[in-house]
Amino acid sequence: MPSPRSLFLLGFLLCVAALAVAAYFQLIEHLEPCPLCILQRVLIAFLAVIFLLAILHNPRGWGIKVYGLLAGIIALIGAAISARHVWLQNLPADQVPSCGPSLNFMLDNYALTEAIEMVMRGSGECADVLWTFMGLSIPAWTLVAFVGLALMALAQLFRRTNNNDLGYIHYR
Q1: What pLDDT is stored for residue 87 in this prediction?
Q2: What CATH number matches the domain at 4-158, 3.40.50.300, 1.10.150.80, 1.10.1240.10, 1.20.1550.10?
Q3: Tens of pLDDT along 100-127?
Q4: In b/e form, how buried is each residue of 91-124, taking b as 16+ CB within 10 angstroms?
Q5: Bigger pLDDT: 70 vs 168
Q6: How far apart (Å, rounded) are the C-alpha atoms in residues 162 and 106?
Q7: Under a CB-based contact definition with an 8 Å cutoff, are residues 123 and 34 in contact?
């Protein structure tokens, strides 16, 4: 298995690549993100920060497991949000929720918990499929990325460590 630092670097680079692709779609292709897309971007950025901290800290023993667990939890939350988004995109047309206010409007006019609840309910623009590759929409590819990042991060929990990695001092 590659070193923890290598895996954290890979996770960081994948997050940066995902954010770069999202910026390309928004700024070059002019695909406006819906509230669920923005929430997924925030989680990918947060995940990138966790991976970057793990790279810089270069932990040993339990530190590897803590970073892996934290990154894994964030990635699983992102996967759940992406799965919800994919579900909304696959609803029959008559069951798609109506379009709602923008994320900025929700954050300006509602408490954060209310705004997040409204985002999670989804809206008509969240059900639009604006781009596909190999039959998968952007949220579906984001789901694949979150699941891969979660597996990579959570694999750190099962990494074998020796006593020296845990900080024990051995006397001869």
Answers
A1: 85
A2: 1.20.1550.10
A3: 666 666 777 778 788 777 666 555 566 7
A4: eeeeebeeebeebeebbeeeeeeebbebbeebbe
A5: 70
A6: 50
A7: yes
Q: For the packed helices 138-154 and 4-27, what is the interaxial angle rounded to 10 degrees?
A: 170
Asked whether 165 and 23 are in contact (CB, 8 A), the reply is: no
Instruction: Quote the CA–CA distance of 28 and 16 in Å, as a whole number.
Output: 17
CA distances in angstroms from 25 to 28, 94, 169, listed in the order given: 6, 28, 52
DSSP character at residue 28: T
Domain ranges of the chain: 4-158
Q: How far apart are CA 57 and CA 70, in angstroms?
A: 14
Tokens 């070059």 correspond to 28
* pLDDT, tens digit, 9 for 90 and up, residues 26-45: 889 888 888 888 889 999 99
